């Protein structure tokens, strides 16, 4: 079955065409899956370095995980139930020798060969922070002050094909995670919303912080989204790129003790830790810079070029 791309505005498709024509993005034939030019990657890397420097200066420890996650781990997060429309499962060949021949023949003519595939124990990672919580929980109770993790730019996948160049199926999320006492986590999320706003101003981006909610699925999901918004558990830093509404380029999420309950994250006094994460969309921020300052970084404002180390 061919999955159609979601609707997009005329200025979004025009921007996508301009990025293709300029060679910034490289078309693959799949909406939301693109190659990048060296210029695009240079900008993205400098954005990542700017975020990483802010995190390092504040004592973050680095952890790195691959862009896949054990199926049981993802199931434990609740993601599969809350966002079934975004899930990416990994399948592999589960047939006999004769089936392999049939599969090869069908694949050669682009026919359906899915009957020879079975689900593996791995899934594509939909949120960069998910592997952190069970990994930290295995270390035992947290010392006073908790921990601060910088995940760097991790590839994540969400099945939402679109012709909006800012809505990718696979992209890099620069994720920061805080696990600590409630008051420390709440203060940390506020601090990082202010740091992100300041960084965006230094990059010449007109960002606004908004209360938001995740795209939960179905009727029950609408209730979850309403509760999330009412409790201000999710903020987004939005910037106008293209389309009728600004695009979320960073998010600031407070989970209370939900992941602590799931994974057994405890403080030294035996109480549950609280958690929060901050995610910077590296490709979206790069697109925001290109849309705001133009497709030729050599002609960007000097202050922006200096901030990113481009001059």
Notes on the protein architecture:
With 311 residues, the chain is of the alpha+beta class. It folds into two domains: 10-88 and 126-307, BirA Bifunctional Protein, domain 2 (2-Layer Sandwich), CATH 3.30.930.10; 90-124, no CATH class. It contains eleven helices and twelve strands. The protein has helices at 10-21, 38-57, 71-77, 79-82, 97-108, 132-137, 182-202, 218-230, 258-263, 282-293, 302-307; strands at residues 25-27, 34-36, 61-62, 68-70, 89-93, 117-124, 147-157, 170-180, 208-211, 234-239, 247-256, 274-281. A hairpin with a 6-residue loop joins strand 1 (25-27) and strand 2. The longest helix is centred in the middle third of the chain and has 21 residues, at 182-202.
Lay out the secondary structure.
Blueprint: H1 10-21, E1 25-27, E2 34-36, H2 38-57, E3 61-62, E4 68-70, H3 71-77, H4 79-82, E5 89-93, H5 97-108, E6 117-124, H6 132-137, E7 147-157, E8 170-180, H7 182-202, E9 208-211, H8 218-230, E10 234-239, E11 247-256, H9 258-263, E12 274-281, H10 282-293, H11 302-307
Helix pairs in contact: 2-10
Annotated CATH topology of the largest domain: BirA Bifunctional Protein, domain 2
What is the radius of gyration?
Answer: 21 Å
Q: How many individual β-strands?
A: 12
Structural class: alpha+beta
The biggest sheet amounts to: 7 strands, mixed
Our estimate of the beta-strand percent is 15-25%
The number of helical segments is 11
């Amino acid at each position: 079955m061919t999955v159609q791309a979601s609707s997009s505005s005329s200025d979004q498709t025009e921007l996508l065409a301009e990025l293709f024509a300029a060679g910034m993005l490289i078309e693959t034939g799949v909406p939301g899956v693109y190659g990048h030019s060296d210029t695009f990657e240079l900008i993205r890397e400098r954005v990542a370095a700017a975020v990483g420097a802010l995190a390092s200066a504040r004592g973050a420890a680095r952890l790195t995980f691959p862009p896949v996650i054990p199926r049981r781990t993802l199931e434990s997060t609740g993601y599969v139930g809350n966002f079934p429309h975004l899930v990416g499962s990994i399948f592999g060949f589960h047939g006999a020798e004769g089936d392999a021949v049939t599969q090869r023949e069908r694949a050669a003519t682009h026919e359906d060969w899915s009957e020879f595939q079975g689900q593996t124990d791995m899934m594509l990672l939909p949120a960069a922070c998910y592997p952190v919580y069970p990994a930290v929980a295995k270390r035992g109770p947290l010392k006073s002050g908790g921990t601060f993790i910088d995940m760097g730019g991790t590839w994540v996948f969400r099945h939402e094909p679109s012709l909006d160049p800012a809505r990718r199926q696979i992209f890099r999320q620069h994720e920061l995670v805080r696990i600590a006492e409630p008051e420390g986590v709440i203060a940390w999320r506020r601090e990082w919303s202010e740091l992100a706003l300041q960084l965006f101003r230094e990059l010449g981006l007109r960002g606004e912080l908004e209360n938001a909610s995740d795209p939960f699925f179905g009727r029950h999901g609408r209730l979850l989204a309403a509760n999330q918004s009412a409790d201000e558990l999710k903020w987004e830093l939005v910037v106008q790129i293209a389309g009728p509404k600004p695009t979320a380029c960073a998010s600031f999420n407070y989970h209370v003790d939900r992941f602590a309950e799931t994974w057994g994250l405890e403080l030294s006094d035996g109480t549950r830790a609280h958690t929060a994460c901050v995610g910077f969309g590296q490709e979206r921020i790069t697109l925001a810079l290109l849309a705001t300052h133009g497709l030729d970084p050599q002609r960007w404002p000097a202050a922006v070029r200096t901030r990113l180390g481009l001059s």
